[in-house]
Design brief:
mainly alpha
């Protein structure tokens, strides 16, 4: 079976080339004809934090560009795998599921955009001309990069459901059961890698927002009343919640299915061989990673909390400069 992984495409030359492209995109957006040569634009660019903010956006775009192609390639591979052997009606149901998930994801992002715009209008932040569409571009760029990772998680969930049903049909076929075990391990690896990448990606967003806030603070437009640093923490918490919503059901299903497979490979049905069977089950748990409970959850928790952690760091260490 074809091994699909986000890590397969990340060769040094590819990473270098795509990183340069990503950083170049930001330079074109935020250096070339930006900011607009009026008073607001001049004040905006004159702040010491302006180039820090541009640098953070560059790092953000670098990561998006590196991940973009492998993410979509992996999603397409998983989709082909899901389509294999399915009739047209089943394929349509899969497409509908993915479309609904995409719509839900877009609505979540749009709700943030609406909230940010309402806040800006009520507080009347003054940005250089052309600032808004550039931010919109970066948001869309992030969305099309994260979307295949999110949809890939849903496809893995569907595949694991299928494997759970196959376990029932392969009770007497130990070779097939071991093949299913290897497939479940592959899905677990893809899921964890996807979570790691998505967590790192969205962790950069609150940091860049904190840098933008520092510019507004220096210009006297933002303060603890109209733009409290706790908003950045809420921003990170929102994206953390999105990751958990899509990741948690797949993770729990994988754990449950792996335990089901373990029970089929080594059932406890003979007290005389209980000690031997328990050792075999322990070895299977370690192989299938079903007994990783605490360590796995801690590892997963750290990754999914990246956005919240970085948000809190920005909130605690972010500049709070006040104009004299």
């Amino acid at each position: 079976m074809k091994k699909s992984s986000l890590l397969n495409t990340y060769q040094p030359l590819y990473v270098l080339a795509t990183s340069l492209i990503g950083f170049g995109i930001v330079l074109c957006l935020y250096v070339w004809f930006y900011p607009h040569p009026d008073l607001i634009g001049q004040q905006f660019e004159a702040t010491p934090q302006f180039w820090i903010w541009v640098f953070l956006l560059g790092v953000e775009a670098m990561f998006y560009t590196v991940v973009l192609i492998p993410s979509w390639k992996q999603f397409i591979d998983l989709l082909k795998e899901q389509f294999r052997g399915k009739d047209p009606r089943q394929r349509i149901s899969i497409v509908i599921m993915l479309l609904l998930a995409s719509l839900f994801f877009v609505l979540l992002l749009e709700s943030v955009d609406v909230a940010v715009n309402l806040m800006r209008r009520s507080i009347q932040f003054n940005f250089p001309e052309g600032h808004s569409w550039r931010i919109t571009f970066m948001t869309l760029y992030a969305a099309i990069t994260v979307l295949p990772i999110i949809l890939g998680m849903l496809l893995i969930q569907t595949r694991v459901h299928n494997k759970s049903a196959e376990i029932e049909a392969a009770k007497q076929d130990q070779a097939r059961l071991f093949e299913i075990a290897r497939e479940l391990l592959r899905y677990r690896h893809i899921l964890q890698t996807s979570l790691l990448i998505a967590g790192v990606m969205v962790s950069i967003l609150p940091v860049a927002t904190g840098a933008l806030r520092s510019i507004l603070v220096v210009l006297g437009q933002a303060n603890d009343n109209n733009f409290p640093m706790t908003l950045i923490a809420v921003y990170g918490l929102f994206y953390t919640s999105i990751l958990i919503v899509f990741y948690a059901p797949v993770h729990l299903l994988l754990a449950e299915t792996s335990r089901k497979l373990r029970d089929e490979l080594c059932p406890i049905d003979d007290l005389a061989a209980l000690e031997v069977n328990l050792k075999k089950r322990e070895a299977l748990d370690e192989w299938l990673e079903t007994n990783n409970g605490l360590s796995q959850n801690l590892r997963t928790g750290v990754v999914t909390l990246f956005p919240l952690i970085t948000s809190l760091v920005v909130s605690l260490l972010g500049p709070n400069v006040k104009m004299p």
